[in-house]
UniProtKB/TrEMBL annotation:
Residues 7-342 form the FAD-binding domain. Signal peptide: none annotated. Pfam families: FAD_binding_3 (PF01494). The lineage of its organism: Bacteria, Bacillati, Actinomycetota, Actinomycetes, Kitasatosporales. It comes from the Bacteria. This is FAD-dependent monooxygenase. It comes from Streptomyces niveus (Streptomyces spheroides). Keywords: Monooxygenase, Oxidoreductase. One of its GO terms (molecular function) is monooxygenase activity. The keyword Oxidoreductase applies.
Length: 398
């Protein structure tokens, strides 16, 4: 057995990339991170860090800072098709999280905190990306879009759901993408509704509109989600067509705020449109290249577990590389040890069956009944899937 060398290139600097960089540095690797965006991408919607992932950030020493950044939403209010109140609950009662332990932070705050933990120890190349990977017996020759050329021992794709690393190695996304029956748009809009640290969610069968007030800020996150049995392959991938698709799905909604949200979506300069889906792959590595986070096993926002899987996956991959001297054994151990955790979390949602987004009148009635019951019943226990992985002690530096 030959030991694999220690120069690693990570593609993507969001959640999985910097977390992996931190742990690989701890294991004695020389790490370079390349990020397509010109700088660390800030802002964005709130994300959850739960269960096993809390232990990852604790071991990184960033838990206190993230506790300070915790959003601590006060309530989640559900409205019926006419805008009437169905129930108002604490967010933990709905998400299956553990109140007082699990965290909800702005995605940008989590990315910044991970980056701050590693930026002095790792080389970051912003505004560039991998153009060509050429693997050979002794490493991988990389040509970057900027024209820069380097050779690394290992490459890790942490470049998200629509990973270019995955596509270049394993083929088109369609092979691995499991559509979950919904399309969604997120955007910011002015807080003209007087909301503060709370979420307001309107539902009609197959449609949901949510307003998310992260703080007492002036801006809200707007979220429009609708059921569509098949992916919108016929809709051109441009913002104009996507805006039209969303607007037509919500035409005639019974609550006037939804119409105002559709108008705000049309004006928004930060519209993000996508389909809800998962990435499911038979293998997460090939040769000297591996995938981590959404690139390998995106669970979809419907599970609320994307960031947690990215954090736990980064830890497990780095630990496998630190434990096993050669990459084939390390990549095999990474898959073997992490896959059951990923499978449990991906199984939290099924096509068209997300708890918060019922697609039929009957399913919506049942959901509303369950929500009202939550008002009188004791809080549900935490979801086992969130904590189903016990982290091994981190292997000593090689
Ligand atoms: C609406 C919405 C709500 C969500 N809510 C939650 C939630 O409540 N809880 C939760 O845990 N998760 C949530 N998620 C998911 C979560 O944001 C992701 O699962 C998580 O960020 C995964 O991190 P990642 O680092 O693997 O990928 P990403 O965060 O997607 O990062 C990929 C990075 O790679 C970069 N990149 C892309 N292509 C290239 C390239 N070719 N070369 C170099 N860099 C590249 C990108 O710029 C980006 O910085 C939500 C997602 C959405 C869309």
């Amino acid at each position: 057995m030959t030991r694999t060398g220690r120069d690693v290139l990570i593609s993507g600097a969001s959640i999985a990339g910097p977390a992996l960089a931190y742990w690989l540095h701890r294991a004695g690797y020389a790490v370079t991170v390349v990020e397509k965006a010109g700088a660390l991408r800030g802002g964005g919607y709130p994300v959850d860090i739960r269960g096993t992932a809390i232990e990852v950030v604790r071991r990184m020493g960033i838990l206190p800072g993230l506790r300070d950044a915790h959003i601590d939403s006060r309530r989640l209010t559900f409205l019926d098709a006419d805008g009437g109140k169905v129930a108002s609950l604490t967010p933990g009662a709905v998400s299956g999280g553990v109140e007082g332990q699990d965290l909800e932070v702005r995605r940008g705050d989590l990315a910044a905190s991970l980056y701050a933990a590693v930026r002095d120890d790792v080389e970051f190349l912003f505004g560039d990306f991998v153009d060509v990977l050429d693997e050979h017996e002794n490493g991988v020759d990389v040509t970057f879009r900027s024209g820069r050329r380097r050779t690394f021992d290992l490459i890790v794709g942490a470049d998200g759901m629509h990973s270019r690393t995955r596509e270049s190695l394993f083929g088109p996304e369609e092979r691995f993408h499991r559509y979950l029956g919904y399309c969604f748009a997120i955007f910011t809009l002015p807080n003209t509704f007087g909301l503060s640290r709370e979420v307001m969610m309107w539902n009609s069968p197959g449609k949901a509109a949510a307003l998310y007030a992260v703080g007492d800020d002036d801006d809200l996150h707007g979220f429009l989600n609708f059921h569509r049995p098949g992916p919108p392959l016929d809709v051109p991938r441009n913002p104009g067509a996507q805006r039209d698709l969303v607007a037509s799905a919500f035409a005639g909604a019974g609550w006037e705020v939804v119409a105002a949200m559709v108008d705000a979506m049309r004006d928004a300069d930060d519209l993000f449109f996508d389909t809800a889906g998962q990435i499911r792959m038979p293998h997460w590595s090939r040769g000297r290249v591996a995938l981590v986070g959404d690139a390998a096993y995106a669970p979809s926002f419907l599970t609320g577990q994307g960031s947690s899987l990215a954090l736990a996956g980064a830890y497990m991959l780095a630990n496998s590389l630190a434990t096993h001297g050669d990459h084939p054994a390390a990549f095999a151990a990474y898959e073997r040890d992490l896959r059951p955790f990923v499978a449990m979390n991906q199984a939290l949602v099924d096509n068209g069956a997300a708890t918060l987004f019922p697609t039929t009148e009957r399913a919506l009635e049942q959901r509303d009944r369950r929500l009202r019951d939550l008002l009188t019943l004791p809080a549900a226990p935490a979801r086992p899937a969130h904590s189903a992985l016990t982290l091994p002690e981190f292997a000593p530096t090689r």
